[in-house]
Amino acid sequence: MTIGNFARGTFAALLAVTLAPACARAAAGCSAVDAPRDAAHPSHNQQLLIPSSGVGLNAVLFQAAGAGSHPTVILMHGLPGNERNLDLAQAIRRCGWDVLTFTYRGAWGSPGDFSIANSMDDTAAALAFARSPDAARLGIDTRHIVLAGHSMGGATAAMTAAETTGLDGLILIDPWNIGGDGTSKGAVTRDALAKGFDDFGNSLHGASPGSIADEAVANKSKWDLVRAALHYRALPVLMVTARYGIGDRDRPITEAMESVGARTTAVQIDSDHSFTDHRMTLAATVTGWLQRLPVSR
Question: Between β-strands 98-102 and 55-63, what pairing exists: parallel, antiparallel or unpaired?
Answer without folding.
Answer: antiparallel
